[in-house]
Amino acid sequence: MPLKLPDLKLARRSLPSWSRRLSWQTLAIALVACGMIHICSTLVIPQFARANAFQRISIGLPLNVMRVLPVAEPGKQPLPFIGADERIAVCRFDVSQGPVEIAATLPERGWTLGLYTADGDNFYVIPAQDLRRFELAITLVPATERFLGVFSLGTVPDTTASQVSVPQLTGYVVLRGSARGRAYAGEIEGILQNAVCQPKRQ
Amino acid sequence: MIANIVMFVLVAVIGGFASSWYMIERGSPMTTLKRGPWITWVSAGRADADPYTRAHFARRGSLPISSVLAQTYQATTDGDGQTLYSTCEYVIEGPEPDAAFWSLAVFDDKGALIPNPAERYGYNSTTLMRSPGGRFGITLSRSARPGNWIPTGGAGRLSVQMTIEEPKVADRRTIEMPVIRRISCR
């Protein structure tokens, strides 16, 4: 039942004295400001997060070269929440000077090859297939060049590798492997070491 | 005047930052899916992820596989809602996820591996021992246990992470997640 005007006045009188000095206008402005601070802080955090995964693994990482990260062990994890049975090779790609070719083997389930933007968007991921070794070869091209075909002018059309257009000129290739125990450590290390990330030869 | 300034600061500044922190750290039904003690961020790693999911993983510093391919579930409590501690013993049990591949690992609450002489930090679908019925059980304990055992040392608060790649269910809400049951505490 709606309160009548005298009831509202009565209710206001029953509030503590300090609260009677609060203005509804200030509360309304505060709520709007609350929303703005909420939105701004949420949007700004990814730009300023010091713990950003790619900032951690980028240290000393050259462009267009695949590097195998060391085995995760207590106190020496390349990233948080990375298990010791997870092996990772990373390449920081840059397609501003031309396409970059990626080649890797995905030997069994549990292996994936993912492409990330520098903001952490996993825009492309391909898992291993059942019951067969999967030899993967892709060429990264800038999103615009794919349609213009600038890099393929005057060359034989490339039909050996599938092209992936990348939304940003720089980003990361992450090859993940799954360790099955020490007996397989050498084999897994070899597969990671053999992965290729390099500028495409014209 | 002072009361109005105090109210403005409380509502605008503290309210704005606190609500943002809560949505980024804990998530909400809009951004996360809860299955018992397990929580997954539904848009993790995706290019069309919402700002809360982006901020969550940027802050956490981890590298999620796109949730289109894999769902990563995190649990920091047991099935009764009690915080997971290394001083307690737990069993994680249930049917094996119907998926191409899955892994389960235990970390401290910051995502660091827990040092232990056995150098054992988790299991995956290729390394786990199963019971004949297709169910599995993994014991989290300081002391050695038979079967699948993950040592928890003196880590304090624990975080269990389970990644399920290519689940063979149309609706991820129907994935049957294992239960986390407390056995005892010291």
Description:
- The complex is a heterodimer of chains A (202) and B (186).
- Chain A is elongated, with a radius of gyration of 27 Å.
- Chain A starts with a helix and ends with a strand.
- The relative contact order of chain A is 0.17.
- In chain A, the strands form 2 sheets. A 5-stranded antiparallel sheet of chain A has the order 1-2-8-4-5.
- Chain A is α+β, with helices and mostly antiparallel strands and 202 residues long.
- Helices cover 27% and strands 29% of the residues of chain A.
- Chain A contains 5 helices and 9 strands, in the order H-H-H-E-E-E-E-E-E-H-E-E-H-E.
- Chain B is α+β, with helices and mostly antiparallel strands.
- Chain B is 18% helix and 34% strand.
- The mean pLDDT of chain B is 89.
- Chain B has a 6-stranded antiparallel sheet with strand order 1-2-3-9-5-6, with no helix packed on it. Chain B has a 4-stranded mixed sheet with strand order 8-7-4-10, with no helix packed on it.
- Chain B has 2 helices and 10 strands.
- Chains A and B meet through helix 2, helix 3, strand 4, strand 5 and strand 8 of A and helix 1, helix 2, strand 5, strand 6 and strand 9 of B.
Blueprint (SSEs and pairs):
The complex is a heterodimer of chains A (202) and B (186).
Chain A: H1 5-14, H2 24-48, H3 53-58, E1 66-68, E2 86-94, E3 100-106, E4 112-117, E5 122-127, E6 134-142, H4 145-148, E7 162-166, E8 170-178, H5 185-193, E9 196-199
Parallel strand pairs in A: 6-7
Antiparallel strand pairs in A: 1-2, 2-8, 3-6, 3-9, 4-5, 4-8
Chain B: H1 2-25, E1 32-35, E2 38-41, H2 51-60, E3 70-75, E4 88-95, E5 99-108, E6 122-124, E7 135-141, E8 148-151, E9 158-167, E10 179-185
Structural class of chain A: alpha+beta
Give the CA-CA distance, first to last residue of chain A.
79 Å
The portion of residues forming beta strands of chain A comes to 25-35%
Report the biggest beta sheet of chain A as strand number plus sense, adding barrel if it closes. 5 strands, antiparallel
Provide the spatial order of strands within the biggest beta sheet of chain B.
Answer: 1-2-3-9-5-6
Q: Give the overall pLDDT of chain A as a whole number.
A: 82
Low-pLDDT regions of chain B:
none
- Chain pair with largest interface: A-B, 61 and 60 residues
Compute the number of helices of chain B: 2
Helix/strand structural class of chain B: alpha+beta
Oligomeric state of this protein: heterodimer
The geometry of chain A reads as elongated
Assess the beta-strand content of chain B as a share of residues.
25-35%
Number of helices of chain A: 5
User: How many strand units of chain A?
Assistant: 9
